[in-house]
Amino acid sequence: MCGICGQYIRSGSPTTDVLERMNDCQCHRGPDDDGIFRDGSVGLAHRRLSIIDPESGGQPIHNEDGTVTVIFNGEIYNYGRLKDRLTSAGHRFTTETDTEVLVHLYEEEGPSFVDELDGMFAFALWDSDRARLLLARDPMGIKPLVLAETDDKLAFASELPSLFESEMELGGIDRDALAQYFAFGYIPAPKTAFRNVSKVRPGERILVSDDGIDREKYHEPSITPRDPDIDTAAAHLRSLVESAVEKRLMADVELGAFLSGGIDSTIIVGTMAQLLDEPVKTFTVGFNQDRFDESWAAREVASFHNTDHHEITLTANDVRESVPDVLNKLGEPFADPALMPSYAVSRATRNNVKVALSGDGADELFAGYDKYRVESLSKYYRALPSQIRKYAVEPAVNALPASRGTAIGDAVYKGQWFINRSGERSVPERHFDLMRVSDDQAIQTVTNVDPIEAGQTTLRTQHAAISPELTDRASLARIQAVDTRLSLPDQMLTKVDQASMYNSLEVRVPFLDTDVVEYALSLPTDHKLTGRDRKRVLKRAFDDVLPESILQRNKHGFDMPIGEWFKHELADEFVSMVRSTELGILDTAAILDLFEEHLNGNHDHSRFLWTVYVFKHWALRMQEQGVIE
Q1: Among 61, 198, 364, 415, which residue has the fewest nearby CB atoms (within 10 Å)?
Q2: Chain centre to alpha carbon of residue 401
Q3: What's the average model confidence in pLDDT over 439-467?
Q4: pTM
């Protein structure tokens, strides 16, 4: 895993000084080595985290005559087979790294070679003979790539802060993107917080030359609905997941696994334990608040699979001390609270290994989240007469005090969350209700942008673009398919990449192998979710590697108790940050009113308050650095 960046200037040449500054911003992505390449209108820079062929795999890497040059971030799991084929065709390799297959495969097949890659990646490849730059990102969006464009210049990087050093005109704040941020807590691709900067979309290939910029999607997950019986589906799924895990054990350095004690990470660890000759190194993070702590479950799994287990415990003070360090690295606001504990466990893991496998992606594929259960059950709530819902149930439930600090308050919060997201609306509108960061009252504090319209428009567009084969399937299947294109790459995988790469740790995600993804999305929803069970087919497939206590326990999120911390340890800091800067986006007085309501326990606004806090922190830092006015 690495960091890449570079420039293309039609009427000039990138300077070494600018490339070095851009590259230095990404040192955490690759502390082991660096390299810079300049050729006419193009400049490439690379930071290396050496995983395969640590001794001789430095980048940039060239073909035999130096006419094709590549910088690469990620892993190609089928590089061995590709290398054998290319060697038979007469190509000469000078390293054992997976990166080198890219230049030779390009020589054979041109830009279409991307279709043959099995892995997670973002790369830039320069063809000097054709004066052509090729950029690409993997089909699931596991590895990031951002792009700044003006009339005669282009700059790209693994992370936005690198572009701040590119001397490119970023175009100022994109208020439409901020509307999406306050809708979802993140900014979906292709937008970023800046008008002239975009995210390369998952499965997108970009060709840059004097003729202009050509962007196209080269891959979308294929979804062909299947209806096998559950035992047949479970057997095939197990084979696919085992193959995906085995491929991701490829490394010339020591590796381990994240272990939360949930179904997904337990399956990954259990499969690794069956494939490896020595105990798996496992890593987990716990909280000193029992209600949020899952470390006991991780310990049970570690004992069941005889792993070499490592555990850390977080307190509010730990998080408060790490928040500035994490948020200061963000190039745009990103408000997933789970970034903080993910950062902490990544830091602890990196002290022991360079590579870790995780169970991310399974919740989207196998309907593990609460929002999927809400969508599945909401049809029964809508069956009640509308007058009863509108004038009896909803006023009564919404009048109850909701605070997630107690079991009763948490139950009220979940009840309010359910009834306010189960109304008679279209599937995209219900989907937005399941994803939005706040209720209508909170979202009205946002001024000059319209998060509700931005969020609903985004979801309508995404639902219209999904595979037509799903149009007759249950709404849940369509929602899951959209999530693999939207929240999975732009929220979940962004969080994983940031948390891990800030600590120079490579994370691999077996559930997001394209074969696993396409098969999982093709299965009927009752193989995944029933009235009493979720991830049904996944549990059936791996019942022998799941301890009974893990099979029976309820789903818990990898979250942090930010709502309680806002009431205590982080209260003063929140107020100070809210008052610190103003971009004409938020009504400060209204935000503080919501904060007071949260403190009193009348409503739980923790998710929205965190979204505000992250935005304010980011805006203040951007002003201090002169990135925005």
Answers
A1: 415
A2: 33
A3: 82
A4: 0.92
